[in-house]
């Protein structure tokens, strides 16, 4: 039985996505993870999803400062979605590109996205169903919500399950979704002081 990844320490930088690369997030809380990352990237934010997607980010419910910078793009087909993601990643002015492909990402598609991110020096985050990622991804995160001990608590577990340049780790965070501030939660469930993310 494989050992569980270590519970990570309260280092805000360890939750940062490597720039100019494309990353992946899966699990029920993957959109929350994407919004958290959006608070940590300056500049325009491009969010791409299929036209038939039943849910879209609501401007009034977004973290502080995200809604004013968000460009929501809905595409007719999977081909259009991947093409749009590539073009957005090639734009140096864009801070973060989030895309929600409906189909598994092929190795070819993953490599094309990485080349686009390198060309534009832009960070990408693909939100996928479990098991639909590409081997070309820089990192892959498994994101789940956890039972909360209090009504105002919003516990989430973000686990780094693939990392081309480092170790695998697991974070339990209490993030209320309004700003980039968050609490790290220890294994015993004790909260630390809020960690303001670096700019």
Describe this structure as you would to a colleague:
- The protein has helices spanning 30-39, 78-89, 107-120, and strands spanning 22-26, 45-50, 70-75, 96-99, 123-128, 139-145, 155-163, 170-174, 183-184.
- It has three helices and nine strands.
- It is globular.
- Mean pLDDT is 83; it is low at 4-10 and 186-199.
- α3 links the parallel β4 (96-99) and β5 (123-128).
- This is Protein ImuA.
What topology emerges from the helices and strands here?
Layout: E1 22-26, H1 30-39, E2 45-50, E3 70-75, H2 78-89, E4 96-99, H3 107-120, E5 123-128, E6 139-145, E7 155-163, E8 170-174, E9 183-184
Parallel strand pairs: 1-5, 1-6, 2-3, 2-4, 4-5
Antiparallel strand pairs: 6-7, 7-8, 8-9
Protein name: Protein ImuA
InterPro entries: P-loop_NTPase
- Under CATH, the homologous superfamily of the domain at 18-140 reads P-loop containing nucleotide triphosphate hydrolases
CATH architecture descriptor name of the domain at 18-140: 3-Layer(aba) Sandwich
> Unreliable segments (pLDDT under 50, ≥5 consecutive)?
4-10, 186-199
**Order of neighbouring strands in the sheet with most strands:** 3-2-4-5-1-6-7-8-9
Distance between the termini: 40 Å
Arithmetic mean of pLDDT: 83
| Class of secondary structure makeup | alpha/beta
How much helix, percentage-wise, in residues?
Answer: 10-25%
For the largest beta-sheet, the strand count, sense and barrel status come to: 9 strands, mixed
- Top-tier CATH class of the domain at 18-140: Alpha Beta
Q: State the order of secondary-structure elements, H for helix, E for strand.
A: EHEEHEHEEEEE
CATH T-level topology of the domain at 18-140: Rossmann fold
E-strand count: 9
Beta-strand share of residues:
25-35%
Please tell me how large the radius of gyration is. 16 Å
- Overall shape: it is globular
Number of helices: 3
